[in-house]
Write a structure and sequence with these properties.
444 residues, three-stranded mixed beta sheet, two-stranded antiparallel sheet, binds zinc ion
Length: 444
Amino acid sequence: MNVSKLIIVLTISIILFSCGEKKEVKQESDLEIIMNDIAKGYVKLVLRTGQYDPDFVDAYYGPQEWKPSGTNLPPDSSAFIELLSISDSLLNELEDLSSYKATELETLRFRNLYKQLLAVKTKIFMLNGSQLPFDQESKGLYDAVSPVYTEDYFQQAIDELNQIVPGKGSIEKRINEFKRKFEIPKGKIEIVFKAALQECRERTSDYITLPPGENFSVEIANNQPWGAYNWYKGNLRSVIQINTDLPKHIGDMVSTAAHEGYPGHHLYNLLLEWNFFMKREWKEFSVYPLFSPQSLIAEGTANYAEEILFSPGERLQFEKEILYPLAGIDTTDAALYYNINQLQKKLGQAATTAAKNYLDGVFNREQTVKWLQKYQLRTKESAEKYVSFIEKYRSYVINYSLGEDMIREFIEKKGGSSNNLARSWELFELLISTPQTPSGLKIN
Ligand SMILES: [Zn+2]
């Protein structure tokens, strides 16, 4: 289905389903009842949509009887029309509440549910065969569009790296040769990663009260397009998998532990479950549809997480004193390696540019691999792995670098910084323990 057809269907479905009966809100408890009803409808809609794509429902820990039977179903146009109708009814019910004077938290709840519903609609169109241009897809699914970065922007960081990376030959060859010294022996990855997780958890608990009973386990995985993954199981628990298909480097352990664990995905998921599903019975927080705005907040906060764990200098010290000895890696060039990693982070947005060009048909697969080698300084193996990630997750890739930039902008605008970590933590906690939306971050 092309874009204009999509708009026509969207318009017709809005007209058809905007004549429902209006429910009146007289007092606060009425609102709670109506919202919980809409939330229940949303959860069931997400679960039904997930029957057609096993990656859609990333976590579900609500009532088991709401789960439809059957997974991995073939596309079914009439079922999709029905699901679109349900989305429209729920959106209309939310719109009917717009005249109610809501509290700040209620407003966040409405907005979050509304944007999540729009994402489910976009996903249903995609399941039915619609191919959207990259930016429209990301707007529909993640409530955000990534800005365009020129090659000059990346070249600047590459020029800086050129000055400090030792060795001979191209920068791509030199940087990957230099980093080889910092590869963790396969048999030691789990123990080093667990030590990083423990440190991240302790530092996080200095600022955020962790609910009793929260916990995680770590597993080694293989043959996956991702490097690590947090599977949130509900009841305040996660399984964190780390994929050892490609070499793991010592400098990535804190970043990965912060991203997947504390104060990243594990903490974000458990705080939403604890604050809203457990304490308030807001059912929408029993399900996590992966291709939705929630993922931009999730990946953005997870990517940003490592920045607030350590004050300048502390991280390298921790890595040298604890992680390097555990991995049996020499610390001689640790400071240079650390600086190189910090600089290389500036190339994060090159991944989004690669994905956009590849999915919009500007680059073919080979050109995308070459671009990632040139502007992200990846090895060929790592670039190919990343293209497999793009093929599976599509515009999801914007959630990392753009999400991180949006989270940083929000925190810095309100006084957080590396010199005021207490303020950064305060704002970070607000972001991971309330229902935020990407476009809402700009107006709050
Ligand atoms: Zn992540």
